[in-house]
């Protein structure tokens, strides 16, 4: 059993879940007199990193987006230098509380894909551990209530302490293998999300009339996906849907265009029903090619309608209407950010 004297934790975080786990791990490492360094992936140039000392334990933690690590994390791992260090992969995924139980999220292909890339570089995978922190995908569902958030933080803190005890003692920890069956079953969805879904969600964010152009969303975006067009924030296809902008906006003016996505889906279905019945039936007999064309049409409509919506938001009447038909506009939907320890330790 190898003695660990130094560890480096690399994390990517939108609303603070992965960052919180990284800080907990650092605390437990320090209690064992392990020198632990914490680095934010979104602010770290991995390309300029030299070969890492093989005696250093490397921990990579990131949220799950579409049952995979987000692009920024995959890019980071892909550009990681060659090495022989031990690596522990972790993730934060959508945890939901029901009574005194935590309903876990799904990891999908995140650990498998990352492990393959790192093994090719010479690293040894010593652990794959998921943590079910509160779900932050406010575009899809309302924020969890304060009681549930505190409950999840308290329980996951206990789990982090347990797993930290194992990995900082030099033992392997493949806790994720318990979820192997469901992760395999859900894995095909991750491909669809990576190729199409993430772009669709990127074009679902907008700022309503309450926006005062403070620029916080633009300056804080970890992937620089937001820019100003016609005096309003505009989300580009680089968006990772990490939810940092929506959950950090002081005015809570960033919302999700739910109806826009419905309109795009209906328009795409109508268009393809006529188009597929004529031209496509003559030239495209392959089902995979038909699926590719469907996806391209959907993305084209999403980008086009998003641009139209951005123009309509400049008008007070149409802008207000767009906001009123978004679920995220209403207070009951809420927002989410990871809480400090002082709020759940009470």
Task: Write a structural description.
There is one protein chain. By secondary structure, the chain is an alpha/beta fold. Helix content is 45%, strand content 16%. It has two domains: 184 residues, Flavodoxin domain (Rossmann fold, 3-Layer(aba) Sandwich); 137 residues, Alpha-Beta Plaits (2-Layer Sandwich). The mean pLDDT is 90.
The helicity comes to 40-55%
Q: Give the topology string: H per helix, E per strand.
A: EHEEHEEEHEHHEHEEHEHHHH
* Head-to-tail CA distance between termini: 37 Å
- Principal-axes shape call: globular
| The top level CATH class name of the largest domain | Alpha Beta
CATH topology of the largest domain: Rossmann fold
Q: What's the count of strands?
A: 11
Main sheet overview: 5 strands, parallel
Number of helices: 11
Enumerate the strands of the largest sheet in spatial order, edge to edge or round the barrel: 2-1-3-4-7
Rg, nearest Å: 22 Å
Low-confidence runs: none
CATH hierarchy: architecture of the largest domain: 3-Layer(aba) Sandwich
Q: Superfamily at the CATH H level of the largest domain?
A: Flavodoxin domain
Strand content: 15-25%
Mean pLDDT: 90
Total domain count: 2
- Return the structural class: alpha/beta
């Amino acid at each position: 059993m190898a003695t660990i004297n130094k560890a480096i934790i690399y994390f990517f975080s939108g609303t603070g879940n992965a960052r919180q786990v990284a800080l907990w791990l650092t605390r437990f490492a320090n209690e064992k007199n392990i020198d632990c360094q914490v680095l934010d992936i979104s602010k770290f140039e991995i390309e300029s990193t030299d070969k890492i000392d093989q005696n250093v334990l490397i921990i990579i933690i990131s949220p799950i987006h579409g049952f995979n690590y987000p692009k920024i994390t995959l890019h980071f791992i892909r550009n990681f230098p060659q090495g022989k260090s031990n690596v522990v992969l972790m993730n934060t995924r959508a945890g939901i509380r029901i009574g005194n139980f935590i309903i876990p999220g799904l990891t999908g292909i995140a650990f498998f894909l990352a492990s393959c890339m790192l093994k090719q570089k010479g690293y040894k995978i010593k652990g794959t551990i998921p943590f079910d922190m509160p779900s932050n995908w406010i575009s899809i569902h309302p924020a969890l209530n304060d009681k549930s958030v505190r409950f999840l933080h308290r329980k996951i803190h206990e789990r982090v302490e347990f797993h930290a005890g194992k990995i900082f003692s030099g033992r392997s920890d493949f806790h994720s293998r318990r979820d192997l069956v469901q992760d395999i079953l859900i894995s095909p969805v991750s491909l669809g999300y990576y190729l199409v879904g993430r772009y669709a969600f990127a074009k679902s964010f907008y700022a309503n009339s309450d926006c005062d152009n403070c620029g916080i969303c633009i300056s804080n975006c970890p992937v620089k996906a937001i820019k100003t067009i016609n005096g309003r924030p505009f989300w580009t296809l680089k968006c990772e849907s990490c939810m940092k902008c929506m959950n950090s906006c002081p005015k809570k003016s960033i919302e999700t265009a739910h109806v826009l996505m419905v309109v795009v889906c209906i328009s795409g279905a109508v268009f393809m029903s006529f188009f597929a019945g004529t031209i496509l039936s003559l030239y495209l007999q392959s089902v995979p090619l038909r699926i590719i064309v469907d996806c391209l049409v959907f993305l084209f409509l999403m980008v086009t309608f998003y641009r139209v919506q951005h123009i309509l938001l400049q008008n007070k009447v149409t802008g207000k209407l767009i906001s009123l038909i978004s679920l995220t506009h209403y207070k009951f939907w809420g927002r989410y950010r990871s809480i400090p320890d002082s709020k759940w330790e009470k």
